[in-house]
Write the structure tokens for this entry.
Amino acid sequence: MTDFEELKNDLLLRAARGERVERPPIWVMRQAGRYLPEYHLAKGDNDFFACCRSPEIASTLTLQPVDRYDGLIDAAIIFSDILVIPQAMGMTVEMDKTGPHFPDPLKSPTDGQYEELMDRKVNVAKELEYVYQAITLTRQKLKGRVPLYGFCGAPWTLLCYMVEGGGSKLFVQVKTWIYKYPDQSKRLLQKIAELCVEYLALQVKAGAQIVQVFDSWAAELSPASFNEFALPYLRHISQRLPSRLKELHLEVVPMVVFAKGAWYALDDLCASGYQVVGLDWLQDPAEAVRITRGRVVLQGNADPGVLYGRKEAITAVVQNMVKGFGGGEQGWIANLGHGVTPFVDPDNLRFFFEEIHRLTSPKSHPSR
């Protein structure tokens, strides 16, 4: 393993382990992205996936919010995409103005491509080497300023993209798959889960200090279907990753699960093996704290849309979070309830960070 400089700000890792902290750590999903003017300068004429495949560009983009919001945020997240796993499996994924697109999605278990995918031996060490190189380079550039998140997409969400061919409103194709071909769907979900484990383990080997699993389309499942087609594979990752890290003689790192829209599954997610559970903005912080009963650390959960609003609105959302999550001394990583959306004013995000600091500093709570 590469030797990295000693971590100077371990606040987030301490919080993720459930320790008492001086204030809640802060970062936001998609903090490196197109809302930043400097993102477009660094990206240049490269397409999205070309940026992901360039360790130099990916590391530069990862560090941009850390530099811009120096002293305000407590983590970086590697610039990459959840769809690199389908790419590693041999599927073509393109990015256009409307989002990711699969020119040749899976059509049925008998379309030839399904069995080809199931039979293919996927070498994630080789196919996704550029991600690991980007992580190592980013750790070197960070010089211990903040810890670095690695991540992957959850099996259910990746299956959605692989059969829908992109984003969807109705999810007709993936619903057809799970209700018409449940056994074949589960075979593929299991294969994806196994690839996720190896991919995350190799990210840790490259330098990731905490990992997150994004189940972005969890809301498309009923509670019963979530328990059948999503939760078992999330559990496989959380159960297998620590042992895989030990096999590689690596330190076990905190794991985060973010199942967007699966508010109904919060109790189950608390028992799914992850130390941190991410919340979207559809959940009330105080109610989430009541349900979780201290079993996990919570991450979230401001509505990203508030960043389009006035400062008074941002302050009100932060106040509600701080109150609901109990002030931030334990059990909370401050974040948005989803990623930063396009056209957000970076100064509004700065104000969001500043308000969290202001309302959770020891001066705000003299009794601490």
